[in-house]
Amino acid sequence: MKFVIQRVTHASVTVVGNIVGSIGKGFMVLIGISGTDTRETADKMLHKLLGLRIFDDENGKTNLALADVGGELLLISQFTLYADCRKGFRPAFIKAGPPDMANELYEYIIAECEKQFHTEKGIFGADMKVELLNDGPFTIVLDSDQL
């Protein structure tokens, strides 16, 4: 599983001209799910994501977590995080999880986040337009294979 986490001042996702998710200060997270991921993988990734201390404290140090700043989450499914570009110029996506399995895990991640934070989401499998103002810029890539 891969998360690309961007600290944002605001972010939104639009599908067919309609905003389907919008947040203020928080994290916009692109979520890639592989064919070998499980709920246990998701739990491990969520623990790290929700505990990240990358917001500035009163001294300007990155020392505060999402909960400390009343942050929000915008979660976007992104199978292209599993692009394999080693051969030629057209990426292969064979490591991305099958759609039914990946969607189930994506919905699980959303449900877990909603227990603690205001959480918005994109639409799985849709052509989405994502807008954000990256704060910093501050971007972190989490890979379950490296946790």
Query: How many helix segments?
Result: 2
Shape: globular
Instruction: Return the average pLDDT rounded to an integer.
Output: 97
The tally of beta strands, per DSSP, is 8
Domain module count: 1
The amount of beta strand, in percent, is 35-45%
According to CATH, what is the class?
A: Alpha Beta
Distance between the amino and carboxyl termini: 10 Å
Q: Catalogue the unreliable spans.
A: none
Rg is 15 Å
Quote the CATH topology: D-tyrosyl-trna(Tyr) Deacylase, Chain: A
CATH-level-4 superfamily name: D-tyrosyl-tRNA(Tyr) deacylase
Proper CATH architecture? 3-Layer(bba) Sandwich
Order of helices and strands: EEEHEEEHEE
What fraction, in percent, of the residue positions are helical?
Answer: 10-25%
Estimated structural class = alpha/beta
Q: Which sheet architecture does the biggest sheet show?
A: 6 strands, mixed
Compact summary:
Helix content is 20%, strand content 41%.
Folded structure, characterized:
The protein has about 150 residues and is an alpha/beta fold. It has a single domain, classed as D-tyrosyl-trna(Tyr) Deacylase, Chain: A. The protein is built from two helices and eight strands, in the order βββαβββαββ. Strands 1, 2, 3, 6, 7 and 8 form a six-stranded mixed sheet that branches. A hairpin with a 5-residue loop joins strand 4 (about 55) and strand 5. Helix 1 (about 40-50) crosses helix 2 (about 100-115). The longest helix has 16 residues, at about 100-115.
Question: Topology of this structure?
Answer:
Elements: E1 2-15, E2 18-23, E3 26-32, H1 39-51, E4 53-56, E5 62-65, E6 72-77, H2 99-114, E7 119-121, E8 128-143
Parallel strand pairs: 3-6, 6-7
Antiparallel strand pairs: 1-2, 1-3, 1-8, 4-5
Helix pairs in contact: 1-2
